[in-house]
Amino acid sequence: MTVVREPIWDDAPRSKFASVVRRSLTLLSSLGWSARILLSTIAAFPSVIVRRTSRAEFVHQLYVTGIRTLPVLAVVSLFMGMILALQVGLELRRFNQEAFLGSAVMISLMREMAPFSCALCLASCVGSAIAAELGTMKVNDEIAALEIMSISPVRFLSAPRILALVVMSPILGFFCCVIGVMGGGLVGETQLGVDFAQYMVSAMGIVDLKDLYVGLLKSFIFGLVIGTVAVTQGFGATHGATGVGKATQRSVIINFLLILMFGYMVTRICYR
Amino acid sequence: MALIEFKNVVKKFDGSSVLDDVSFSIEKGEVFCVIGPSGVGKSVTLKHIVRLLSPTSGDVIVDGVNITDCSDDELFSLRSRMAYLFQSGALLAWKTVAENVALPLQECTSLDDAEIDSKVNAALEAVELSAAADKYPSEISGGMQKRAALARAMVRQAEIVLYDEPTSGLDPVTSVMIHKLIKKFNKERGVTSVVVTHDLAGAISIADRLLLLRNARVAFCGTPQDFLKSTDPYAMEYVAATKGITI
């Protein structure tokens, strides 16, 4: 599919009603276009592994997505675990139930907070960078140049980036959960008087494989969403530096909203 | 039969016509220059040939295929025979000059690394950029970027090369060098070249035929000799303005 596209209308709307209708149709068209990019990207996943040049780019994107975001994710998830443990622990202490601190922190992190916070960090750090990078390429005619060289921007640019996010997101989500649980244990030991070993026994005792799978599924979906939104916003950027800025901003906002919506939907489907 | 043909092409942006009933044809193997003042629709004309833009009405026919309504596969096939030199060069910033030139060969052919290296070296040598092969686009001058883009355009042995303001912003010496390269590729490889420029002297030195656009319409289409002899007031005005003569 071709990525460089023109506006649907080449004249100005004649009334406010026409303007509203056009905006609605443009939104629908953009949704369809995003879906086409996603499907074309998924179809191009095998070529990312098979082609040597794409494989090198994929490995680079794995590094950018996975390794470079590790410090931020580690700090965010550590403090999230600590805050969670402190808030829950103080309430549990009122009922002399501190022994269940590990279970509460583990369940919250594994089911919701770890995939959620990991996705928000990825949307902010990686998604915005992808939107800005591809947006800059778009306004500098680099993407048009690729298309004219018969190099599909979807295969060459989109597929390695989205696949890297899809692969790394569950791994990073799990990493966030582990670090968060450790942070909770640290607070339990130092501020709530809960022995770390006892905390871990409580945490591991509540772990259910279903919770792990649901957490990983959420991270997987978030990775797909973040990549798709970032790529489509980047490919859709117009009007120079201002357009790139807007595309980056839209990428972050849409990703935050979709992460919340998809998070709720998966929870609703998996925990009836 | 003409290789590229514009038939009554109209292009509108926000209701105003940028191209209005434009018709002309380009023969195989010729250097065809599109000239005119800034904002007259020269680059828009060029972008229609590769369907980066589609006409509001009218047809653009490339080698017998109506590019305005052909399938993606047909478009892909036509584009694989073309090269486009963008005004900005459009080199990928994260790849070196050599990697940029090698890109179309790596992605669109089954050549092995040795063959690709040999073709890339030859292309860089042709544009006198061998010394900058390992530099990134941000580390070289605008003129060098354009030459690198020219090498990338030529390395695929394209049959049709489209040049969008290849000498804009360049010093006269580099401009002459680029014009010589365009003519050289045309002569040696039989490439059909469409050059958009506002550099009349350069256009006259390389063109087999010229197209002058005025107010979104064709004001003149013919050989440089006929253009210089033209009695059309706008063509005379354009020539005089280029020479710095007030009439």
Structure description:
The complex is a heterodimer of chains A (272) and B (247). Chain A is mostly helical and 272 residues long. Chain A has one domain (53-270). In chain A, α3 (70-94) packs antiparallel against α4 (101-139) and α6 (153-192) crosses α7 (196-206). In chain A, 85% of the residues lie in helices and 0% in strands. Chain B is an alpha/beta fold. Chain B has a domain at 85-158. Helix content of chain B is 39%, strand content 24%. Chain B has 9 helices and 10 strands. Chain B has helices spanning 42-49, 72-79, 97-108, 113-126, 142-154, 172-189, 200-206, 224-229, 233-243, and strands at residues 4-13, 16-26, 31-35, 57-62, 65-66, 82-85, 160-164, 192-196, 209-214, 217-222. Chain B has a 6-stranded mixed beta sheet with strand order 6-7-8-3-9-10, with helices on both faces. In chain B, β4 and β5 form a beta hairpin. In chain B, α3 packs across α4 and α6 runs parallel beside α7 (200-206). The longest helix of chain B has 18 residues, at 172-189. Chain B is globular, with a radius of gyration of 18 Å. Chain B starts with a strand and ends with a helix. The relative contact order of chain B is 0.17. Classes of the chains: A mainly alpha (272), B alpha/beta (247).
